[in-house]
Structures are given as structure tokens and as C-alpha cells.
């Protein structure tokens, strides 16, 4: 059996070995160095496809005159939480 007959000619056994070797290397890296090499891809995927980017854009573009949630998160002077407590 050949992978992509005509484009790339690799025996199925070699492809299988390469996939298994990749998974073993990833597992060893995560165990030895406490590193997760998929986290950048996971963060990007979640922000694009699971609404994280849209939520961030909403928070940035949401502005109210009375210092609503967007102003309170930014810590502006109009927000009630930014006022000193001794007033």
C-alpha cells in the first residue's frame, strides 16, 4: 500500500512508524520537560473557532458613557470601582 499513489510513495509501515514515533516523542517531551507543544495551536484554535476572539472584540468595542463593564475592566476614571474608598 502506498500513501498518495503517484505523489509520495511511502510504504504504509513507514508511515505508521513515523506517526508512532511522533507520539512517543511528544509524550516524552511532556513528561520530561513539562512542556505542552500543542498549547499554542490549542489557544489559536479556541480563540478563532470557539468565540474567544469575538468576546475579546466585544469587550474592546463595548463602551458606555456611565463607565459600564468595559470601563471597569479597563480601570478608567468613570468606573465606580476606580474611585477611592474614602469618598
Kindly describe this structure.
The protein is mainly alpha-helical. The chain folds into two domains: 1-33; 37-64, no CATH class. Helix content is 56%, strand content 0%. It has helices at 12-33, 39-49, 52-61, 69-74.
Describe the structure using short key phrases.
87 residues, mainly alpha, 4 helices, 0% strand
Described by strand count, sense and barrel closure, the largest sheet is: none
Radius of gyration: 25 Å
How many β-strands, per DSSP? 0
Distinct helical segment count: 4
Estimated helix fraction: 55-70%
Head-to-tail CA distance between termini: 79 Å
Structural class: mainly alpha
Query: Poorly predicted ranges (pLDDT <50, ≥5 residues)?
Result: none
Q: Could you give the order of the helices and strands?
A: HHHH
The overall average pLDDT, rounded, is 75
Overall morphology:
elongated
Number of separate domains: 2
Q: Which oligomeric form is depicted?
A: single chain
Percent strand: under 5%
Amino acid at each position: 500500500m502506498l500513501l498518495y499513489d503517484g505523489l509520495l510513495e511511502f510504504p504504509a509501515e513507514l508511515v505508521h512508524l513515523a506517526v508512532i514515533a511522533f507520539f512517543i516523542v511528544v509524550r516524552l517531551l511532556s513528561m520530561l520537560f513539562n512542556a505542552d507543544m500543542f498549547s499554542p495551536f490549542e489557544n489559536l484554535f479556541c480563540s478563532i473557532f470557539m468565540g474567544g476572539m469575538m468576546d475579546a472584540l466585544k469587550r474592546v468595542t463595548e463602551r458606555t458613557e456611565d463607565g459600564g463593564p468595559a470601563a471597569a475592566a479597563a480601570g478608567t476614571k468613570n468606573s465606580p470601582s476606580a474611585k477611592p474608598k474614602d469618598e
